[in-house]
Amino acid sequence: MSQVSVRVLGCGDAFGSGGRFQTCFMVSSEGGCCLIDCGATTMVAMRRFGVEPGSIDTVFISHLHGDHFAGLPFLLLQQQFVGRRERPLTIAGPPGTRLRLLAALDVMFPGSAGMEWSFALRFAELIAGRTEQLGPFAITPFPVVHPSGAPSFAFRLVVAGRVLAYSGDTEWTDTLIEAGRDADLLISECYSFDATPKFHLDYKTLQSRIRKLEPKRILLTHMSEEMLAKLDEVTIDAAEDGQLLEL
């Protein structure tokens, strides 16, 4: 099997807790490179950690909240006007992704939604339970509990024989078991320590259910200030911006 790496470009929540960038994970293999989510701070994170935006082939969006997809307008416009991109870029997300992105483009940069792109901009609509093969990446979305005006997903991503699972944002739901079982890496939201915030996961709940998943490694993300203050009581690895993992 070829090497697969995961770079944490952002592991923060929507509110910049701990000074962390918003959600974005880059997955790289010999066959290509993708992003899982693309929060509003993604371009800043790419510059901070030496990532070339033109290296991205596909962006997978778990749900349509700004801290998970609002970096896309900046990525597209940078590739159009600075990167001079010519090769295709695919954006894969829940139903409604294309329209929400075009609306965001027009709100932030009026007129940009109707421009002629210098590269082929492709959209793939992800459907719960259906595996899509996009380049070297086979992705299966699973429905989770997190209202966002469109379906919200957890992901099971297979590339080069490795399995990466990602919870997205959600309260506990048993679909996470199917998404994360026996994964080489599970990246799980962990917004709070022992509270039970609606539509989000907490550490105590995750800890009590993790045996149902049995991933080889777990990485906590999307942590609030309250959760970050409790990290000395946590026995599961917590993500850090810029962190590089090899699978």
What can you tell me about this protein's structure?
- The protein is an alpha/beta fold and 247 residues long.
- The protein has a single domain, classed as Ribonuclease Z/Hydroxyacylglutathione hydrolase-like (Metallo-beta-lactamase, Chain A, 4-Layer Sandwich).
- It contains seven helices and 13 strands.
- It has helices spanning 42-48, 66-69, 72-81, 97-108, 175-180, 203-209, 225-228, and strands at 5-10, 24-29, 32-36, 58-60, 89-93, 121-125, 132-134, 137-143, 153-159, 162-166, 185-189, 218-221, 244-246.
- α5 links the parallel β10 and β11.
- The protein is globular, with a radius of gyration of 17 Å.
Notable traits:
247 residues, alpha/beta, Metallo-beta-lactamase, Chain A, 7 helices
